[in-house]
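A quick word before the example. In earlier lectures we treated sequence and structure as two separate objects. From today on, think of them as two lines of the same record. Here is Lipid II isoglutaminyl synthase (glutamine-hydrolyzing) subunit MurT written that way.
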Amino acid sequence: MSGNSDPLTPRAKLAVTAGKAAAAVSRAAGRGSGSVIGGRVALKLDPDLLARLATHLDVILVSATNGKTTTTRLIAEALRAAGPVVSNALGANMPAGITSALAGGSDAKYAVIEVDEKYLSGVARDTDPKCIALLNLSRDQLDRAAETRMMAEHWREGLAGSKAVVVANADDPLVVWAASSSANVMWVAAGQMWKDDAWSCPSCGGVMQRPGDDWFCGECGFRRPTPTWALSGDHVLDPHGSAWPIHLQLPGRANKANAASSAAVAAVFGVPPQVALERMYQVQAVAGRYDVVQFMQRDLRLLLAKNPAGWLETFSLIDPPPTPVILSVNARGADGTDTSWLWDVDYTRLTGHPIFVLGDRKLDLAVRLEVANQHFQVCENLDQAVQLAPPGRIEVIANYTAFQDLRRRVGN
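And the structure line, produced from the sequence above:
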């Protein structure tokens, strides 16, 4: 699909130029990467710009509640084996940020695009993707995104009639229900650690039966599809039954699941699993996630967790007690202003860890930890928490804007 013909009209070229100028001004003012403001300016001048920029690209969209930034990065690395890739690697995943990313990819063959769950249908309509990866759906940003069943319905309606190959997690009933409206689905057994948003059937509302790794609705017959790709321990099983070893620098079971889905996507474009997985090994950190940084002569590992499912996965990969843990929670616009989700997180998993609490909503978190019978100290800032922490590497877990605050403080 890649070609040399220029799909851009004079108006579109003007929009791209203006967007890049706005982004440059934003960066010079120290207001971040400028990708969002640049995209907004460009779309204001040409509302059809995103569709125009996508016409010469093989587009892959990635959406989920958790793991989409990392999976986008893994797919992008894998597809570079087959040609140049443009991607919104820093996670600006709404139309403005996506438009900015594509504006910088005039020579690319592939566009690997992370998409916010709410915007998936619209972005798919504009970009005519060849492949859509759907990883999971769970509660997140409760004040903004409504409940998960509504999001799955939104996806299901948006995917109906799509010509894209949909690579979908067979272990998440909400994802399966959303993807089932598509004509061409490739099911991946990627696992589902967090099940608390999938006990009722998305099709009929009945109670879901979950024997072992299987699931089905006893009332309407909606059930787990047979996967053709699967995560099995430290291997990816392909449709032929061959097992390919996963070697990642990224930690945890969740990232192996991301790699399995990424290998399935890469195969759609002719990249063999062995090649795809070898290239994924290059990824050490993703937009600061999993980075180990030096701060005040201590090693800090930075971990992002934005919602109950993400916190559960993160607790499974931190070093064992008595490793000190710093927790930071904000509730700004980008996080969602409703912190009631804190009560859905099982903080008893931190028993034995010295815990230090900070962030805009440190007192909300402190109350939750108190009820969970955890030992903790409330701190004014990162510096104080690091000073109080006992020796050893410190695990730092933060939600979205708290994570960005911490990255700025440590110069990452």
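Notice the following. The CA atoms of residues 370 and 376 lie 8 Å apart. We will return to this example when we discuss secondary structure assignment.
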